[in-house]
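Records of this kind hold a single protein each, on a pair of labelled lines. With that in mind, the following record should read easily:
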Amino acid sequence: MIAITGATGQLGQLVIEHLLKTVPADQIVAIVRHPAKAEALSQQGITVRQGDYTDPATLTTALQGVEKLLLISSSEVGQREAQHQNVINAAKAAGVKFIAYTSLLHADRSPLGLHVEHVATENALAASGIPYALLRNGWYTENYLASVPPALEHGVFIGAAGEGKIAAAPRADYAAAAARVIASEGHSGKVYELAGDNAWTLSELVAEVSRQSGKTVSYQNLSEADIAAALKSVGLPAGLADMLADSDAGAAKGGLFDDSHTLSQLIGRPTTPLSQSIKAIL
């Protein structure tokens, strides 16, 4: 049995979509916080079990009979270390034989503040004694595409990444890699640095938006503090705004760049180009 945590999340749903191409539905366990939201998974023949990152007892029960676990990192920044430790402890108690974890690109040397909780989880996995693989995901293209509609409306795209190269790929590409690793053998001990094939700067992203939309959009590079303030002013929660600003500043230092092409090698095809993603959102 293969289990996926956070199975109703954006990445989790895509992983299951890919898994179903090679794994029978009755061999997949979707671990979710709210089973009522997973009715669509149940209807496909997938076993849905309730499991909460903050409730160890539910996790131990949810992982019974599971051989392989895809631990999708929690979305609750600041609480991830403890939540992931709960999952790892439960996996050990349940006799799980392999864990794949969605970490952060170059987590061990990343300038992004996000790296701290990911490194803590990687260390917890190493200490657990359970064979594991690290899926160090780069940035999702969607993280920036969410800013395209307001940029088209106002004619300006704001950021703090300077001319830092961003090797992003859509969630679906990372999901395909995760499905491949969790469904096949030979990945124990592997560290996969996953990123898009063709890196781009925010200036290049904005130029492509302008080209495809026919509307003039300019890129305005702000300081980390100013971009955080701007994001808060449009209603983003303070923690999220600060995290995004920190990540942009990290991108300016090369934190979101990788040219190993590991992701495309894993999924057996080139990663989805930025132009295609922009076309889809437009």
